[in-house]
Amino acid sequence: MASTSDIRDKLRQKRRAFQESLVRVRDDTQALVSMAMDVNRDSAMEDLAGEEEPAETLRRSLKAQRQRRKKKLLEEMAVEESQTGADEEEMEDGEEEEDVETSAVEEVSEVQSIQQSRGRSETEPETESEAAARSFTRSSRDLPPLPMSRPSSSISESSMRQRMREKLRAARSKAESLLQQEVPVEPASRLQSLRDRDTLTRFDRETEPELRHVPDGDSSEILGKVKFREAVRRVRIDAQREAGIPTGEEAYNFFTFNFDPEPEEEPSKRRKKRRPKSEQAEGGQEEEGEGEGEEEPEEQEREVEREPAREDDEEEEEERDEEAALVRDGEEDLFLIEQSSQDFLEVRKAEYIGYNRRVQRESELLFTPSVRTVPASNKLPDNMQPRYLEEEGLYVGERPVVSLTNENILENRILRQDQATKWFGDDGRIIVLPDPIKESSTRPPLFHVEGDLDPSLQTVYRKAIKSKYAKRYMPGVGDTQGDYQLDVDVAGLIFSHHGLFSREHVLGARLAQLYDQHLSRQHKNLTRLLTDKLSGLRNTIRNMLELHGGQGLSEITQQRIAEYKQEVKITRQMRDAEQEKDRALLKNIVKVWKEIKALREFQRFTNTPFKLYLRREEVDRASDEREHEAEILAEVSELQAESWEDYEKKVTEYKQQNEEWKTWKKKQKAMKKKKKKKQQSQDEEEDEVEEESEEELGEEPTKPDPPEEPDLDAVERQVREKAARIRRKPGEPILVPELTASSNITPNEQCPRAEFGRRQDVLKRSLFVKVLYNDKEVSRTDSRALTADFRVHFGQIFNLKIINWPESIKLQVYETVGSSTTQLAEVFVPVPEPSILTGSATSEQLEFSSNQRVTFNHEGVGSDVPFSFEADGSNRLTLLTSGKLSCCVSWAIGEDDIPLAPPMTHASAGINSGIMQMDAIACIGASGLNDMKKLGKWAAESRLDPNDPNNASIMQLLSVVSGGEVTVPDYFRLEQLQEEFNFLSDEELDRSRRFRLLRLRTQEVAEFRGYKFVPTLEREVSEKVFQDYEKRLRDGEIVDTKEHLDAHRALVAKYLQKVRESVVNRFLIAKHHFLLSDVVLEEEVPTIGGPGAGVLGLNLFKLAEPKRPLKPRRKERKKVTAQNLSDGDIKLLLNIIRAYDIPIRKPQASKPSVASKSTRSVTETFTTGHSSQTAMQGTDWPFNQVLVRPFVEVTFQRTVLQTSTAEGPNPCWNEEILLSFSAPNGDYSTTSLQSVKDEVFINIFDEVVYEISEAERERERGGLYAHVERHWLGCVKIPFSTIYRQSRIDGTFKVEMPPVLLGYTKENHLVSDGGYDIVRNLTEGAFITLFITIEPQLVPGETIREKMKDVKFDTEEDERVLLASEFFEKDAMQRFPDRPCLTTVIDINGKTVFITRYIRPLNPPQELLDASPNNPQETMELVARYVSLIPSLPDSVSFAGVCDLWSTCNQFLTLLAGDEEEHAVLLCNYFLSMGKKAWLIIGTAIPEGLTAYVLTYEQSRYLIWNPSNGQYYGQYDTFCPLQTIGCLINADNIWFNIQMYDAPMRISFDVTKSKFWKPFFSRAFSYPGLSSVQPEELVYRRTDKAAATELQDRIEKILREKIMEWRPRHPTRWNRYCSSTLRHFLPKLELSGGRDVAEEHRLELQSLLGEYRISGFPLHLPFSEIQPIIEAVYSTGVHKVEMSNVEFALAVYVHPYPNNVLSVRVYLASLIRTR
Amino acid sequence: MASSNPSVFLLMINGQIEGGNFPEYDDLYCKYCFVYGHDWAPTSGLEEGISQITCKSRESHKLIWNFPLDITFKSTNPFGWPQIVVSVYGPDVFANDVVRGYGATHIPFTPGKHTRTIPMFVPESTSRLQKLTSWLMGRRPEFTDPKVVAQGEGREVTRVRSQGFVTLQFNIVTKDLKKLGYDTTPGSSEAPPITGLSGTDQPYTL
Predict the structure, then answer these.
(1) CATH topology of domain B9-204
(2) Model's pTM, two decimal places?
(3) Which residues of chain A does B123 touch, with a Cβ-Cβ cutoff of 8 Å?
(4) Which residues form a coiled coil (chain B) (predicted)?
(5) Does any CB of chain B come closer than 8 Å to the CB of residue A1083?
(6) So where are chain B's domains?
(7) CB of B3 within 8 Å of any CB in chain A?
(8) How many helices (DSSP H) and strands (DSSP E) are in chain B?
(9) pLDDT attached to residue B118
């Protein structure tokens, strides 16, 4: 808009100049004309409106107008003329005016475009003349759209109309009031534009007068009388219209002026003038009138309008300007156009089609059927009443259920169609068929009960059969080169027997067969071949013998001769056999021929064309005889030689055997003699030997018979006999049979009837062959008739384009008799080698036969039917239909002589091809391999001809075999190629350092877990990498005593390490076992209410909860998984809130007075709960002195932070301390975090400020005037693992304080003289309230125990018990998810054990029982203290993230380390053995979390014992760390707490009440009497006192060194005197259990070291390792005293308890000389 | 660095997450990270990234991110060859940000340009009820760590549903791989790699 306004400004200036010039030129006519024009425009519009669809036409015309942007003023003028003519008629249309209005308003939306078009039209006054011509021509062209648009616009109009009417009404009233005031200055931009447009429309319409005038005429007739009134009113309406239109837009309101009163008169005048004319034209002569009207104004106005067409408008504009400056804006646009028509930018609104308009438009195309019920009358033919058939008693089927709405819609839809009524029945409803759905199923129900089912209906499982060939496609099919084609050539078939054979045929076939044989034999001519070979061999032998002259034959030659001889023998035999066969064949042929001849004679007709000729070949008798004789002789001599040889061999053999026999005989004799001797000597040994020797001799060898000498004559005789039998006699002519088919067949008519019948039958038969490829028929030959000679010729070649791999090619021979077809035979054709191509392939004769039984009643012999040639029916024979099919299968050759065969490799071996190339053995396969030796043997024996190509493959194989010495594997090789893929041998792999590194890494060996960047090259891996690992492996067994002060503990530590390792390994698999929750984060299904207080329920509850802004709560934070954390991300947040009962200082009397001594008898028994305190405060307490100024220092991972200092024994800090946490090695994985052993020390110190005495002040010139000392008061230790596991710790903790705090007293009566005593009595010692958490909250790694739920442990428990326990736990979990319930635990061997098995009375060390035999209370305390002295080692630390392992008491005592539960179990067992009632409590406590306590019942009081520190609490002790009690366990049952509350204070411990406690073993499931896993008795070793003393010295030494180490910048002086005093004191402390000695001790100290200010305390620790002791000492901060004159005193005492349980006491004091 | 005996090889990955095809969802963004073995270390570039949110165009119904990847790895051992894990997120009906797919693929080891389309999947709810509640609360099941999809371990417990595809383009450059004895370049017998628009490829003109 900015740009337009700019342009406007410019234009305004221009226009003014122009106006000034024009104003003067203006004359009346111009003004008049312009006025007339305006009016005309208005009227034109109305005129349009007067027609049926004014709105539509207007819109259309507007569009046309837009298109015609170059329209001229002249054009408009022309239009105006016509309009003036039409004026009057339009006036008559006044009643439609409202419609006009609506259309006008409608146009508002199009204003912008109109403006443009108008603007454009106004730019062209210069070119008016040209454009005039153009526009005229165009106007005629523009016509058509208008009439076309008419029919459909009326609907939308009406709705529009209504709205507009309302608008109009409002506008009208407004405008009227305006008119009365004579203030017609309103810019009516819209109207202006409309008018302008109207002229154009007008112009359009002008040339189609008929269309327009027909309605005009009608209306004028009706409304003629109201004309005048209308004329007046119309003007007013114009104004109203103006007013009615919203005027927000900028105006292009050039013509607004026409509402001024002045122009109003003018048009009316004009109209008056015109009226007569138009009146004349009335009565159907509108056309003419129109024409006249057109002409007139043209004459009048053309001259005027031509030049200053624009000026008119401007004139008016000007006039109006004078009245209202507002209008200016409108003018400017006009000039803008004038200035540059090209620059004019078309800015349009986004085209929006209003909803109603769209509906209107859509309504042209769409039909929405109404849902209203159609009245029956519409549906029925006229004047028909609906007729209801039901009422007339006719059956009408039930109509299907259709909703009424749908039916109505359908009816409405149908009614729109032609012939609608035919869809409706007589009752006026749509004709329907009755509901086809039957109420009950017609199918008999199937009952799926196995037994009831009819056996025939029972389903039988059949395994799916996989088609073997289905998927085996040829490789490369689909490619262009992948076309494979098999050519199957079925040439024909010959029957060797057929059911229709006559007897003669049978013989003929036999003859032919024999003849074939003969021919093939002759072709091979084996006899000749062998004869030649034989003579060749004989020659060779002879030559060899001649060559060597019969002597000096070398070994080899002899052997060879022998071989040759052997060869000759074999060859001769073979030749003889062949000759015999030849001869037999010949004889047979002749015989059969004779039979045929006989048969022909007999039956007197000939069926077969066979005719045999025997050709004689004469031979030279003499030479023949000679040859024959020579042959025989040679043979004889050979045989003789052989037999001689044989004989000789036998003779030598005989001799040898004979010899043996003789020796044996001799021996036997000798033995017999010996025996006799032995019998005499009676020597047993010899006897034995003899027996042996006798045995050695074995059974008696048979006496050999001497061989017979060969009968040479007999040999000759035999030879001659044989020759006579198998050979042609010398001189006998050679007979050569020749079979021809030249014999004539007797014609049918000469045959007997039977034969005729046979022949007829033959003619009926026809045959065809089916070709099956992969068991699918692919094609079949034509059916060919069987010929009389039983040969069928097909001669068809089938080209098979194949996709699947050829598995089988089958040809099936079918015989057709009449219409029935029977399969005669099936012939398998081998799949050809890829090298066999169509051109080169030879036809094969494939024999087939059929076992079909066929009988005939004619001459045909049938098949499978016995028949005989003999008249008597003897010598029967049975023949089966058989024959030969000659066919040929080969790979086709493509057009380019490319064989369409698959590549060689594929064809040869399929899958195994690769193996075959690599492994000759694999090629044969495993089975072949087994026979390899046999094969080799056979090959050697059979003397294969190496040159024979047939043997090539075998020879090759043999060469392979002999080359690489074949050892037949006696194993099965599953993965034959495994070795191929081994990069290197295993030894090499072991040797390689790099691979070793890689392997160790994958095995997750601790040293190499997560090793980064294994070097690429072997040489880059140094041996150093493995040093640690190897060292560890080596040192596995060596115990390093240096690290551990105690050899026993070192062993234990080692053992623990081992257990740990084995357990870790055991769970390594479990670690890799994932649960869904490990991988997928999924929201829990919210539960509403329930004991779990599900998410939804809780949230709902929270909504209802009143808001309590003054009671802030800690909100749940988002949990963070520990994987993407790094150093500094994790913070430990400690909120130290307040403390109670901090010990207070004692007045620093420079000299202790006796009086004060006596009065102060504060017992510092923090360890006991029931001894009441009766301390009194000294009267000399200076009131103005500060009691104590405590502050808290938190030490974690050697980071120390402290709070500000508070005052008084009950300080309140409420401070937050932020400690950063760094995980070991920067490993923030869950397992790593779980195994963090660091502890948070919360130490309470007293800040003491000492004024420096004058003397000192002088010494330290101007420096310090006071110095600050800090005295350790107590501490709270919280292991990080606890915080991590519980994610937050919130509560009040008892501060561990030494029994003796030098210089402090436990003051609690100064302020508590009132009623607090009772409370105080329960709480002895100081307490501190803390809140600890980790920021951000870490997801605590759940122990694998939970995961283990489905990874079952080994167990020896009864399955029933396990199931019950699972159920019990699950039930408990559901009902009280917060209460721990434990029924089974895992023992140290990783086996699941039922928990009650751990409870069994066990004897505590006798020593402890003896200590105070009279006081059972004290004994109990002592026992508890003993148990607590066994160091605690959380399982979660030792078995990081693995599980909670329970060790038995003896294991526990051996290991001397264990978790709370081990302590608890031991303590419980001790108490039980002492005759107490004791239970194990499984519950949660602060700060341990899930833990085990011990409950005892004594003197109608329940006591809860904390086994870790030996303390006990009454049931109603507020400071009892036990928070919830889940279940109680004793030796024979488990009770789960089902009371409302779980805090010890609020529950009843009476387990007999089933309302409160749910027992595991109840009446329903009685206790099966589980045996205990605990030993019967514990055996204690006395601890070596000397070792304890030694340890004591070592600890002291180490601590001394450490303290000096921690004070690197200050000298550390040791006060020996004090140390020794302290050392004496410690054993006393130990004996007394830390009670009742403090006061005396202090007095003692004070008297000894009066001039020192002492602050110090004894520490008490169970002994496990030295490190915790050092940590504890460090955390007290004694070493931090930085005064120059400080001295230290240190004493260590180790008290040995039985079984190597050691109690360590460290007394540490700092002394400052006060004077 | 021009030593003839390199001890590491470099793998430079340059590319982009081109876009995805998630027929039912719109306004998605994606996140990528790399999973690689112990012997690998990124030397430059970003290991992880989150893309912009992209909307479907009216015509193509494809989500286009064109989110660049640029990272260089050094390694001594091809074992643990890097994989890229892409996870796609977007608003559901209630405008909660939920996961729309996880997917992973190995970085191609052949130098050159590669386009990979990886199928995306999301874990299924364990029960119908959970499916409903997760749908209602807009907290669908997700993998605790998207890197799970690059591993086989633990996958057997999950059940997933496929959900669209993501197309990635890689330009791979390797250094010293061959010198260390790993030949990854395709043999001469292999067909030349098919580039983006086969058939309408235009000759390179500079």
Answers:
(1) Immunoglobulin-like (2.60.40)
(2) 0.44
(3) 1079-1080, 1082
(4) none
(5) yes
(6) 9-204
(7) no
(8) 1, 10
(9) 94
